[in-house]
Amino acid sequence: MSTSIESVLVENRVFPPNDDFVRNATVAGMDAYKALYKEAEDDFEGFWKRQANEHLRWIKPFTQVLDDSAAPFYKWFADGELNVSYNCLDKHVVEGRGDQTAIIFEGDDGAVTPVTFKQLLARVSRFANGLKQAGYKKGDTAIIYLPMSIEAVVAMQACARLGIIHSVVFGGFSAKSLHERIVDVGASLVITSDGQYRGGKALPLKPAVDDALAQENTEKVRSVIVYRRTGGDISWTEGRDIWWSDFEDGQSDVCEPVAMNSEDPLFILYTSGSTGKPKGVQHSSAGYLLWAQLTVKWTFDQKPGDVFWCTADVGWITGHTYVTYGPLAAGLTQVVFEGVPTYPNAGRFWEMIGRHKVTTFYTAPTAIRSLIKASEADAKVHPDSFDLSSLRIIGSVGEPINPEAWVWYYKNVGKERCPIVDTWWQTETGGQMITPLPGATPLKPGSCTLPLPGIFASIVDETGEDVPNGKGGFLVVKKPWPAMIRNVWGDNERYKNSYFPSEFRGYYLAGDGAQRDADGYFWIMGRIDDVLNVSGHRLGTMEVESALVSHELVAEAAVVGRPDATTGEAVVAFVVLKRERPHGDEAKEIAKQLRDWVAKEIGPIAKPKDIRFGDNLPKTRSGKIMRRLLRVVAKGEEVTQDVSTLENPAILDQLTESV
Ligand code: PRX
């Protein structure tokens, strides 16, 4: 365990919830939290059985709660049947909430389109009927490559209605990344748009689909459904491409939901790991939905009348669980936003909170940090210049939030009245795992506090033994939970090796380092593997390295993360060219080429912030790249460690020079 994990600064300010909040909360006070936690401890299966029966509508009730006979391939509610889209839509219509607004969509340009549960159900049904007519059915796989829109939610829900397994690819990913995912899931369908608006600009999306489908192993794709968002000319493949509007034209508003087994995959979402290509994280239907709905209820304390806004894109897990599935299943009214936080100015989020009377706001520390900067430079975009009185709860997700940003968020956005829920979780966990409950948990800035009821999180050493409070270790979850990853798509071995390595006694290994303080609060220290977290997005250093070395000029590359005041971490690449080391303008020009190359290979989020050229990389005499050393060099710190085992210590001087 690295020393940085042991030595992290532990904040000691504590912010208890106010009495009013506690009185009205779903989980009211620490005793209520502890009682729920204890219920799960004392009767693990009974606890989950109760939750699943109370929160989900079943077509066929389950009789078995947990099947661990093939652990770590767990099954939950395995003989039950339900339909996820029914639970998100029909349920509310049947129960009399059909006229309630489900989504308030705000476009990049500020145009607002509301849709009720009844209307959303009709739209999902029409689209699903179109899919049925085109011959798509349960077990097929679809790629969704859409901007934030009502259509993205409709596409995902329509797939869920028919049992088509979707895999959403974030619109910022390149044609190459898209191609890899199309091939890996074996997609027969792609749902996309001509383009998207971001920050006042129309950006194309369809060309990346055309590009991806021109490459090998994509013959299975029979249809590309194109939602017209930006207009303008796009290339068209007759017989394959069809406009969204033509596709659903004339379809009935009624579509019978297909009965799905609890364990049927709902979706596959790719995320970076420490080795190789991104992993297709496979999620289930019932267990996933249960946790999406339950965490909305607990962590966000949502009630009728709440207006929920999660700013994440549906291309990430946060957008799956806290846009498409959780809020709909919980029957909330939610804001879906197409644009960026800084357009037309950095007051956009705060203005929208006022306009839509948002009560619950959930965003990433990176966004908060960049808005702090902007509001320091211009009072007009400071939260104080907007009406934020509707807010009740504010949340944070995706990366550690530094105590300074936490306190700013608490004071300026939450007005010292709204609890902050700093939620720790992952693509693989399906939903939030370690988080405060707003009406119960006393908050400490920078800590995600305590595990939710039913989640047996702990910190262990490399043998799986619990470490005492105050000592760093590996974050694990000791028991399975319903929303956990079910497999790495098509790769049982990778699933087992990545998440259940044998030395950890069958515990789920999260890949984060953490420690607990004297109160048992969890403090996340960041990844223990070669995964970076840039603006809350996961990136494997290996992915960026392989993108770099696939460029014709590059002989070798090593990528590390460096702390960054805005994006949390920044990508720093150390590169050895096949030719001599470049200098001055030439070095700048090549660095630019390499950045653009990485954007094309993976996506703009993976672009190295800093590229440094050397004649070689620092290696041990056995040829291993000394990444630990590179991390120090990347930070601009002096190298104090012993470099006597280095083959070529002089190389370090070259690598301290930024281009
Ligand atoms: O390192 C942790 C960090 O983000 C990783 C998971 O990334 P991803 O699968 O992309 O999911 C992000 C959205 C849930 C974790 O392994 N992380 C996430 N939330 C927090 C966090 N680190 C600290 N505090 C958090 N609240």
TrEMBL record:
- Stored InterPro entries: Ac_CoA_lig (IPR011904), ACAS_N (IPR032387), AMP-bd_C (IPR025110), AMP-bd_C_sf (IPR045851), AMP-binding_CS (IPR020845), AMP-dep_synth/lig_dom (IPR000873), ANL_N_sf (IPR042099)
Positions annotated to bind CoA: 198-201, 318, 535
Q: Which GO terms describe its molecular function?
A: acetate-CoA ligase activity; AMP binding; ATP binding; metal ion binding
| Cofactor entry | Mg(2+)
Q: Which domain of life is it from?
A: Bacteria
Spell out the reaction equation it catalyses: acetate + ATP + CoA = acetyl-CoA + AMP + diphosphate
The keyword Isomerase appears for this protein: no
Task: State what protein this is by name.
Answer: Acetyl-coenzyme A synthetase
Say which species the protein is native to.
Advenella mimigardefordensis (strain DSM 17166 / LMG 22922 / DPN7)
